Amino acid sequence: MTVPIRPGPSADQIEMDRAGSVGGLAERGPAECDPVEMVRVALGDRAYDIVIGRGLVTSLGLRAAALKPGAKAAIVTDDVVAPLHLAAAEAALAAAGIATIRVVVAAGEGAKSFAGFERVCEALIGARIERGDFVVALGGGVVGDLAGFAAAVVRRGLDFIQVPTTLLAQVDSSVGGKTAINSRQGKNLVGAFHQPILVVADTGLLDTLPIREFRAGYAEVVKYGLLGDAGFFAWLDANLDEVFSGGPAREKAIAVSCRMKAEIVARDERENGERALLNLGHTFGHALEAAAGFSGRLLHGEAVALGTALAFEFSARQGLLAPGEAARVTRHLARAGLPISLADFPGGAPGADRLMELMAQDKKVKRGRLTFILLRDIGQAYIAPDVDAAQVRAFLAEKLESK
Ligand SMILES: NC(=O)c1ccc[n+]([C@@H]2O[C@H](COP(=O)([O-])OP(=O)(O)OC[C@H]3O[C@@H](n4cnc5c(N)ncnc54)[C@H](O)[C@@H]3O)[C@@H](O)[C@H]2O)c1
Ligand SMILES: [Zn+2]
Fold it and tell me: Are strands 365-366 and 369-377 parallel, antiparallel or unpaired?
């Protein structure tokens, strides 16, 4: 069976300019009003496509049937996404002749537990999902990580398709094959690398996402510009409102993000080097998230935004980049409604010693030295494996005093 896929413009075909005209998309006629962006994750015999566009969930069945003729599917989702988007996914698969079962977990990070994982595995086995069948992860990063890990191990490995429904999942967690659940001792400590066979990112699904979740996901979008593409950051700065309101600018922002992640993952799938750049803002961010107890007090993306602002300010303090550039970044994050200062930490920020302790628990401090992602400029991040912890502590203490 062939699938009518219209390839979107490639990275170099997309022109970015400050006026915000997106070459590849704007030039197409009205007959092609649902442009599809395609990004290939080049991983040899495990290569796969990410398709991005509004309304794409309706094409899920045809795309899945092309990859898995005659297979049946288990859709794993959560109880917030199910009433919103499960019917559309089931209908699309049914229309292509694919029989489905559903596995609905409770929404939230709590589902990424051993108990939640056991329930998903037992449900897949109980529904006789066999080696040739496949799993569809319909949801945010929690569902993607949980369903992906179950797919990695049930019957020693099932194919799976990601249908991410949060901005964070569309630009980050659904791409790159990291899957995991949490241990009592920390997040994402039990998992596997298991690449999906397809990612269908329907940007229309984000219309139902609470604005706070959208903003949090946006912190990961802007991260790609900040770590490796100053032109993309400038484009985001000029098109922020359009990205938030939906339409072609949103698709483009997601496509550029996926393309950057795909390229990095293709070069360094198992994070032996370059993939660590994706942790920009995450060293401070994880400590802040942990200080907030991984609760709704501070969402992951909010912690990353704050951590990114701190990473830029720390880089400026080290004389690595011009203070004006750090200020440009924090202004942009603030415009996106994201926290940028420790004063924004809900319920009062933790002290410098507590933050250092949390970074140490995160195994980021070795013999008084820290591995950090620092910046030479916007778009020029690098891995600094040997940052003096005392300097970081002094910087945090000063920030906490001045907040
Ligand atoms: N595997 C990776 O590479 C990777 C990368 C980054 C993050 N993660 C993981 O991702 C998880 C966070 O993902 P997340 O931010 O997507 O959180 P999430 O999956 O918990 O989703 C956030 C909330 O939004 C709801 N939701 C999802 N889609 C919706 C929609 N379209 N409309 C309305 N509500 C919707 C969910 O039910 C949930 O309540 C964490 O567990 C993190 O560890 C994994
Ligand atoms: Zn992140």
Answer: antiparallel
